[in-house]
Design brief:
- By secondary structure, the protein is mainly α.
- The protein folds into three domains: about 1-35; about 50-230, MFS general substrate transporter like domains (Growth Hormone, Chain: A), CATH 1.20.1250.20; about 240-429, MFS general substrate transporter like domains (Growth Hormone, Chain: A, Up-down Bundle), CATH 1.20.1250.20.
- It has helices at about 1-10, 15-40, 50-80, 85-105, 110, 115-135, 140-165, 170-200, 205-225, 245-275, 280-285, 285-305, 310-330, 335-350, 355-360, 365-395, 395-429.
- Helix 3 packs antiparallel against helix 9 and helix 6 (about 115-135) packs antiparallel against helix 7 (about 140-165).
- The radius of gyration is 24 Å and the shape is globular.
Length: about 425
């Protein structure tokens, strides 16, 4: 078709051929220029373009690994005959590893360099993912999940910080980076399902090995990259006065609850749909794909509409109330269709809560206070999954999952407190 149009436009066969070649060459040049235009728009220098590509690939793999931990947990429970309490502790170990990494990445890069610290803390995930399929000891399983969590936290820190340093257009670069994480989260359950179709019962082991290979590739790419070293720390007197301010504690407690609920969704929703008989084990992991699909759509909508939302406090309250209603609907509904629909609502409602909370923080927003907020909020993801497991053993999984509804209700109360503080501070200005 393309050659015919060329021939029609030219008078002679030779000119037609020359025209086709010129147009084909022109198309290739335009494609090359379009890639360059992306780097230009993001204000990334030529020497950093390969590093930026590595960082984005690493973030996609990070998204795959994090969701994979929740998808594989029911298989691991069945393989090792774990109780719900033990399963909760194992999954909490992943979040504990993330918390350790958050603390370590604030110190280690300044001691041994960013590249060495990244390689040191990410390499353990390969060992951990292989341990998951090889060991038959609860302590070693906990250690394996902790190693994957350390890798997760390290990649989060390294990729976010480095993107901010190499890109002049940080907002666009960050959006692209986190879209990659969401894409990884979306396809992670699909990888397990694909292996299940090909290999049956051993699919979860092959999925774990697949992610271990991906992490190994990331490790090699970082080893060959030129990660910029962190700037020297400035010696300054640190003020801890924000610990006495309610404008610090309200959003911090809100994010603590948000992370607790979000982490528990990753760890327990697959169990919940299997236990309820709603979906078979092979398909239950798709609920996380559904959840993250709506989270992605919600975040895109919030990003597009952010400048048009005049009262972000009211928007945050609406999101918290909608999340609570959807949790109540999913838990109380006896219908498969309604449960899935309410699950979609949970993902959409929760999507903008974290960034909107950060955006509405007033007063106590120094780098130190924000660091404390991130660290404290991460503790929510350590404790709640374990508590749900303990309650599930004592009262059943449905009762354990109902704690998420309790957490959502408390979130609404804390959002109201947070809005009242912001309104008070605004009136005092």
């Amino acid at each position: 078709m393309y050659k015919l149009s060329c021939t029609q436009e030219e008078n002679s066969p030779s000119r037609a051929t020359d025209g086709c070649i010129e147009r084909t060459t022109s198309d290739l040049v335009q494609k090359k220029l379009s890639v360059r235009s992306i780097f230009t728009r993001l204000e990334i220098k030529p020497q950093n373009q390969g590093l930026w590509a590595t960082i984005n690939f690493a973030f996609v793999i990070n998204g795959i690994m994090v969701i994979m931990m929740g998808v594989l947990l029911p298989y691991i429970q069945a393989e090792h005959s774990l109780s719900y309490t033990q399963s909760g502790i194992v999954f909490s170990a992943h979040q504990l590893g993330t918390f350790i990494a958050v603390l370590a990445t604030g110190v280690l890069p300044y001691l041994i360099g960013r590249k060495r610290s990244t390689l040191l803390m990410c390499g353990g995930a390969v060992v951990g993912l292989l341990m998951i399929i090889a060991v038959h000891n609860l302590f070693l399983l906990i250690l394996a999940f902790a190693l994957t969590g350390i890798c997760r936290g390290t990649l989060n820190n390294t990729c976010n910080v480095t993107t901010a340093e190499v890109s002049g257009n940080r907002t666009s670069a960050m959006n692209i980076l986190h879209s990659g994480w969401a894409f990884g989260a979306l396809i992670s359950p699909v990888i397990v399902l694909a292996w299940a179709q090909a290999a049956g019962a051993s699919a979860w082991r092959l999925a774990s090995v697949t992610v271990a290979v991906f992490i190994g590739i990331v490790w090699v790419l970082f080893a060959r990259s030129t990660l910029p070293e962190p700037p020297p720390k400035e010696k300054r007197k640190l003020s801890m006065s924000f610990l006495r301010e309610s404008s610090f504690w309200a959003p911090t407690i809100l994010l603590f609850l948000y992370v607790a609920v979000e982490t528990s969704i990753i760890g327990w929703f697959v169990f919940y749909f299997i236990d309820a008989g709603t979906l078979p084990r092979g398909l239950a992991g798709i609920v996380l794909t559904i959840h993250w699909s709506m989270m992605t759509i919600g975040r895109i909508c919030i990003a597009v509409a952010a400048n048009r939302i005049r009262n972000k406090n009211i928007a945050l309250l609406v999101m918290a109330i909608a999340t609570t209603i959807c949790f109540a609907g999913m838990i109380l509904s006896g219908s498969v269709v309604l449960s899935i629909l309410f699950l979609l609502g949970i993902g959409l409602s929760m999507a903008g809560m974290y960034p909107t909370t950060v955006a509405t923080m007033k007063g106590a927003t120094s780098p130190v206070s924000l660091g404390f907020t991130v660290a404290i909020s991460g503790l929510g993801g350590i404790f709640l999954p374990s508590i749900i497991g303990a309650v599930a053993d004592a009262r059943g999984l449905a009762t354990g999952i109902s704690l998420l509804l309790v957490g959502a209700i408390i979130m609404v109360i804390v959002v109201v407190w947070h809005c009242m503080i912001n309104r008070r501070d605004k009136s005092h200005v």
